[in-house]
Write a structure and sequence with these properties.
Elements (H helix, E strand, L loop, with lengths): L3 E4 L7 E3 L3 E4 L14 E2 L5 E3 L11 E5 L1 E2 L4 E12 L5 E10 L4 E10 L8 E5 L3 E3 L5 E8 L6 E10 L6 E11 L15 E3 L3
Antiparallel strand pairs: 1-3, 2-16, 4-8, 5-6, 6-15, 7-8, 8-14, 9-13, 9-15, 10-11, 10-12, 10-14
Amino acid sequence: MKRPYCLYAALATLLVPSSALCSENRLLNPDFDEDLELWTSSPPAEWSPFDVDDDPSSGSALAEATCDFIFCAAGLRYEPCLAVEGGEELLVELSGYPLDFGGDGHQFLEWYETDDCTGPFDLFSAEAEEVFPQEWFRMSRSVTVPGSARSCVFSFTVQENFGVEFSVHFDKIFFGSAPLFRDGFESGDLSRWSFAVP
């Protein structure tokens, strides 16, 4: 189910924008309400009732780490091919909850020049972000699509270098156009803002 993604802003609780800015999530099943359909991992992740918003009608994906000689990583891959346009600004976000060990959170985008995610691709890796065990984290990145790209594949992991297996809950994932918000603070145009009385 696609849900609109809205950004709200406030300034010292006195100013609020006159409207919310929304962007459509291009992912299907981003909140794991009932299952992990369209998402894959190795080994296969499991559906869990543990939800980032404590929503009893939803859940999360519980991914187990796999290890090699260098590091261990737990993650998910969105299987459907995602259409993009060269030059557009994307917002990519996800929540995670490492159970045993922290590490570095990574987001990956495979850019293809075809419409169906086939052929050679360029791999984009967002800057790693440190995450901690027993805490929900939120990773958010704004990415510019390369000019020649027409489709992409999205995946993400949490990695650690201690060679110890661990698991991570993932939830509330977003992939869509980055909402544009001009606050007007530099120009002095505050017409989009109004005073709110507590």
